[in-house]
Specification:
Elements: E1 5-9, H1 14-25, E2 29-34, E3 53-57, H2 63-69, E4 75-78, H3 85-90, H4 92-112, E5 117-121, H5 146-165, E6 169-174, E7 177-178, H6 190-199, E8 205-207, E9 213-214, E10 217-218, H7 219-232, E11 240-243, E12 249-250, H8 251-261, E13 269-271, H9 286-292, H10 300-312, H11 315-320
Parallel strand pairs: 1-2, 1-4, 2-3, 4-5, 5-6, 6-11, 7-10, 8-13
Antiparallel strand pairs: 9-12
Helix pairs in contact: 1-7, 4-5, 6-8
Length: 323
């Protein structure tokens, strides 16, 4: 079976760059589209030596550029997004322009160029705080921030294009993902923020009481999940599918675990809760297990240890200053 030609929007970002690297090194022809508003050029420097890699600088808000970028492409992994909840509260219109209307541009380009498959990176944030746990794909969508609302709108827009135009789409709802290359800024980057402070001898800063929970999935399990979608998408086309560790951990418990791992005896600092914060998230991944044989390999303990090794090797220092 011939290797697919792949376009990854947001391919210089945290998850996108890992995905691009994996596909390139496994012989796929890969193009990435990124405007570097969130992505980092250092994430993809190692790929420029490969003949099967191409970078396109630009935004998903550029319709004409997308039409050209999606030509001669079999599969689109659409990861490009304005990812920061805090920014979405200040700039909701911009967030919708990128996340919702940018996704509309991707879908229209995919239709025009007869793309074989679109994989849309939605988010667990579309669910809002859990009504029940673990949260399956039928959990109500109750987005609590403009960011989450923009992703939920794009999520359902993708479904509508599948139903209306028969565009083959899989909607991936990843729960909180962490690991190397994740920037220590923005709403979702709790783990790199805690690691940075703990290694500097400082206490982690927690918004609210720290009882809010998340389901943390290590980056290698996330890439594994995306590859399973490509391998067996016929089983889940037209569906939303959860990927996560399937276990929740309170933010306070996470902070204390990182302090212990870093041999820091400080106590976490609590500040006022932040707007639009989801209180509880925990994935039900039974659909992913049934249809794709998804079985995450990393526990929070093993993932944190591997992330810390990468961080302490100095690779973070080499990476973070690039723009």
């Amino acid at each position: 079976m011939p290797k697919k030609n792949i376009l990854i929007t947001g391919g210089a970002g945290f998850i996108g760059s890992h995905l691009a690297e994996d596909f390139v090194k496994n012989g796929y022809t890969v193009k990435i589209l990124d405007d570097f508003s969130s992505g980092n050029v250092n994430n993809i420097l190692g790929l420029f030596n490969y003949k099967n890699f191409k970078m396109i600088r630009g935004s998903v808000t550029d319709k004409e550029l997308l039409r050209k970028a999606t030509s001669n492409v079999d599969v689109i992994f659409h990861l490009a997004a304005q990812i920061h909840v805090d920014r979405s509260i200040i700039e909701p219109r911009h967030t919708f322009e990128v996340n919702t209307f940018g996704s509309l541009n991707v879908l229209d380009a995919a239709l025009e160029n007869d793309i074989e498959l679109v994989v849309y990176a939605s988010t667990s944030e579309v669910y809002g705080s859990a009504k029940y746990v673990p949260m399956d794909e039928d959990h109500p969508l109750n987005p609590a921030s403009p960011y989450a609302a923009s992703k939920a709108a794009a999520d359902r827009l993708c479904f509508s294009y599948y139903k209306t135009y028969k565009l083959p789409i899989v909607i991936v709802r990843c729960f909180n993902t962490y690991g190397p290359r994740q920037m220590d800024m923005g709403y979702a980057a709790v783990i790199p923020k805690f690691l940075k402070r703990a290694l500097s001898g400082l206490p982690p800063v927690i918004y609210g009481d720290g009882k809010q929970t998340r389901d943390y999935m290590y980056i290698k399990d996330a890439i594994y999940a995306y590859k399973l979608v490509l391998k067996s998408y016929e089983n889940v086309v037209g569906k939303a599918i959860n990927f996560g560790a399937g276990k929740e951990i309170a933010i306070l418990e996470l902070a204390n675990a990182i302090l212990k791992l870093c041999e820091n005896e400080a106590k976490p600092i609590h500040v006022l809760p932040r707007a639009g914060e989801v209180k509880r998230l925990c994935a039900n991944t039974s659909l992913a297990k049934k249809e794709l044989d998804f079985d995450p390999k990393y526990t929070i303990e093993s993932g944190l240890k591997e992330f810390l090794r990468w961080y302490k090797e100095g690779r973070y220092e080499e990476w973070k200053d690039w723009v």
